[in-house]
Amino acid sequence: xxxxxxxxxILIWSTGFLVGRGAMPHxxxxxxxxxxxxxxxxxxxxxxxxxxxxWPTGGRSIGTxxxxxxxxxxxxxxxxxxxxxxxxxxxxxxxxxxxxPLFTALIAxxxxxxxxxxxxxxxxxxxxxxxxxxxxxxxxxxGAGALPVPVVLVAVASIxxxxxxxxxxxxxxxAGDIRCVSALQNLGAVAVVLAxxxxxxxxxxxxSLTLWACLAxxxxxLSLGATTLLIRLMRSGEATRTAALLLAVPPLAAVQGWLIxxxxxxxxQLLGFVLAIGGxxxxxx
Length: 285
What we know:
By secondary structure, this protein is mainly α. The chain has one domain (2-284). The chain has 13 helices and no strands. The mean pLDDT is 84.
């Protein structure tokens, strides 16, 4: 059963952007995300209360958790869902998400002045070449298949937000009980996406069965189920194996996008997928 857990986590995690793709025709994406994050925050807060867990104290610690959640969820999923709403395929978004280790390496060089091994530089070159092969055909296309440059820039910015948020989460002031931390981080995400809903949202919500099913899966399956699985994997010593399997998320998302929504990739884009994932694997060795 333990050996199946990493695969279960990856299968669940790969559905993340597909949920957004399925919900968008039925609801304002920012309203959807806001309700999702609020429900998750409530569940974790109740769990923390039942367990009498110790909540973070002090403005610095609480602020760090709120900021981490705003960056890792709010400014990550809000803009990336906007990009998906404007034509970026779910599989491509998942691929960009898998490049987080490469963005982390670039930030380490540019901001922290860290030196990278030649293998890491090679992984960066191969990875970003792969991404270029995936995205350029749509950027250079004309007509209905064209992808505007601002859409890609917004998607890349969302990955940078995720990367910075992950770095914030690793600071000493971000430590604490996982239930309390998750509740605070989801509250931080709620604030961001509700601000986006007020600024850009339509308030649309059609109460369809598809919409409620997407919300249930996003809340229970992704935010609660996948998070719980990840915690168990980390505690059982399988975090390294799971991190390696995360490279399977973009291909899985692309296949699911093709099966469910008819999203397709050209031969050049498929080659780009392989190169990008190979680059991440090389950089992380």
